[in-house]
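Record 1 of the preview.
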Amino acid sequence: MRIFVAVRHALDPRRFYGGLWSGHFYPALRQLGHELVESQTDLYPTSRFMDVASGFTPEERAARTAATEAILDEVRQAHRRQPLQLFLSYFYNAHFDPQGFDQLRALRIPSINFYCNSIYQFENVADIAAKADVSWYPERDARASYERVGARAVRVQMGADPSIYRPTGVPREPRACFAGQNYADRAVWMAALVNAGVPVDVYGHGWGAPTAEDDASTAETDPPVYLGRRQFRGRSVGGYLKVTREIIERDGAIAGARRIARRLLTRHVHDAAVAAVAPYAKGPAPAGPLVDVFNRYEVCLNLSNVWADGHPGAALIPHVRLRDFEAPMCRACYLTGYTDEITEHYDIGTEIDAYRTADEFVDKTRYYLAHPAAAESLRQAGYRRAVNAHTWVHRFTELFTKTGLATA
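->
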């Protein structure tokens, strides 16, 4: 197929992980023999408000219209040169006017929009999902959200690229590691390890003193108002007041007050946990793939919870992540939070292992650190499963089969 791709949220790879999804998708698509036409429209201006689901300011709407028209112009030009068989995107509501999919249909170009935050941020893609020909989502429990807006939803899990995520043979340190941003209840889990004396290193933003990279998407010189919307930073008073007002408006006075109290308690517990973990923070995770980290440690940990609605104080729910495929593909001894969904992809205790409680998290980390043979057995089996079933080539083959595009 000749595929037009618009999956980069910024042309600058330092902004909004501008090279993340192209890095995942392109090699597999090319390996399958598809020709790619990449959009050159920079989505950075609209990505800066992509956490806004609706109620756009006139300036934001104008920016989205400009991006939409630019992308559609690219599509028309490419289609005139040689017909396109697919439009593949990763759009939030903020990136693209949903009516633009009607123009793609008029050109007889089918569309697939990918989105991987459907469990806790579905509202940010709901309008796009309702209009794209196919909405591709990976999360098992997200289907009801897509059905509610009338989307044609196809579930295909994420994967990893074995040419990137691979064993490197470097000596392993007799420690556990976690690499990722500090959010949700991650600090509480990591503090349990630290307080139990388990040797562990932590990489990522938010674990120690703030660094210049902790806010890679927004510079300190950014204006207080962007495209007609007031901007708030970190723990500013204005930011707290904005969130408080939104909670009261959404939940009502009584339920809102309870939610605010839970947020304050969560923040207090979180700050105490961060203080415990901070001495073991190694700074930001590597800018590129985490291959070195996954290969360098005896045990690689994953913390899988997110806030149910994306905001502190909500229920915590686990979900499957990219690293669930990337780390085993590096032949890591991989320990993750338990979810029924992960059992669809691995045999727990044989290919990877999982924990349900803080005590189990501590005990299993200690066990694999103290029993190298058991850790090695997990590595070998998890690696075989990952490379034989969980590559991006597997995922795109499944996607195109389910959507009827395999023969296009």
